[in-house]
Design a protein that fits this description.
Aspartate Aminotransferase, domain 1; 16 strands; three-stranded antiparallel sheet; Aspartate Aminotransferase, domain 2; 2 domains; single chain
Amino acid sequence: MPLFEEPLHVGRPNIGNRDRLMERMADMLDRRWFTNHGPYVQALEQRLAELIGVKHCLAVCNATVGLEIAVRALGLRGEVIVPAFTFVATAHALQWQEITPVFCDIDRNRHLIDPDRVETMITPRTTGIIGVHTWGRSAPVEALREIAQRRGLALLYDAAHAFACTHRGQMIGSFGACEVFSFHATKFLNSFEGGAIATNDDDLARKIRLMTNFGFQGYDDVGYVGTNGKMTEICAVMGLTSLESIDEFVAANERNFLVYERELSGLPGVTVLGYEPGERYNYQYVVIELDEASAGVSRDTVIDRLQAENVIARRYFHPGVHRMEPYRSLFPHASLLLPVTEEVCRRVIVLPTGTAVSEDTVRRVCGLLRRLIESR
């Protein structure tokens, strides 16, 4: 028998207030307004913009489409620099539009795009940089801003991990030309499925609004090439309900993180990736690195043994986007320029957390990890 009867998944959805969710659903049904920028989408956009501290926050059907629209709205082409240590959608949003993603290495300690390496990747075909706020920790925004301004490049951010997080006391969402959030079911804040593009640029916001709705600028007037990137009312209902419970979500995640950090302290070969003091985080990702030489067991063996006990830990972002198709075939030697990414991809384990995971459950997971490593 596995240690846990029910699987413990990374990213099991946070729910929020069920009664409030059902009330809103009933109201939505009574209104018979299910899509096309309805009142719940409008309310969600306003509250998101207020929380983030930006002029515009445009809800979209998901963050991948949000990235694609942002890339197109900014007029990117040629080559765009992205970290290889990210979810594959960051690169796909470019490749889908026949823009070449140029994979950049990360810094060793924080797993974020390395601005020194960015500088070396710029060519005459480079038009932009996509920074990623990995694990809710902010990318090096000042260094990237300086490079982008000096080299005349567009700068935007994939903020899928970083809703309700800060950089130097400022909410993530207001950096670069725009930032794209994910509200997928597995994210800290979920709207079942969805995302948002945050910006302070009025012209860019107007263009993005047009592009999310086929380019319609009036009832029967299409003025721009667009797609169907709209968020539905049912997703906005969930988003608003989730938004009202973010303090509860943060508290549960932080509590679990601190238990993991304490219980795994001193375990040979295991390092818990910490959070920097003085900033606000959502603590959605509990990330450990496993050093095989010190632990006496490989990362993949630990993953397999955890999963056998119904602890569905994950290898993020294994094996690295550069080793996935079509990039593996297009850039077969990319790994030579990505030594840190290669190393981190071999070491990272992400552990279950969230409102569905109790302190006692975390202790039991940690006890299992200790037994796996100490009995090697």
